[in-house]
Amino acid sequence: MYTVPVTCGVRERPHLLREVETQAIASQQQIALTRTQQAAKQREMRMAQLTRTEISALPADTNVYEGVGKMFISLPVADIKTKLETQMKELEGDVENLGKRLHYLEVSQKNSKDQIDRMLRGGVSAS
Q1: In angstroms, what CA-CA distances link 78 with 42, 66, 67, 74, 116?
Q2: I need a labelling partner for 115 at 20 to 30 A (CA). Which of 33, 44, 47, 87 fits?
Q3: In terms of DSSP H, where are the helices of the chain?
Q4: Which secondary structure element, helix H or strand E, spans residue 68, and what is its range?
Q5: 3 — phi, psi (to 5°)?
Q6: DSSP-derived 3-state class of residue 125
């Protein structure tokens, strides 16, 4: 946390302004990365939902295969459904955690921008 005395202006503390700007830029980059990750997880979740829906329509004795590297392994339909359910739960948790991280980063970026504005207007603190 930094506190700038009332008599100190931006010209006397340029390193402080640069540091706050760097924090704002880093937050902005992290926000973009988090949004990309969140979108990817949501796509994966949607694919798992669609796959589960398609597999649910199949008879229980249908031959179902899962890709493992360059091979395919025959698995019962129930096992595939269980794997998809587990995958969807994990993805939901990931999306929720990314949403929390995104909120934190957006608040952090807003605070950095507010600090920059206060400093440029001659504000008292940059904490």
Answers
A1: 24, 13, 16, 12, 57
A2: 33
A3: 14-56, 77-120
A4: strand 64-68
A5: -125, 130
A6: strand
- Average pLDDT score over residue span 53-81: 92
Query: pTM of the prediction?
Result: 0.73
How many residues are present in the chain?
127
Q: How far apart (Å, rounded) are the C-alpha atoms in residues 125 and 127?
A: 6
Nearest residue to 28 (alpha-carbon basis) of 127, 107, 125, 114? 107
Domains of the chain, each with CATH number or no CATH:
2-121 (1.10.287.370)
Q: What is the mean pLDDT of the chain?
A: 86
Percentage above 90 pLDDT, the chain:
59
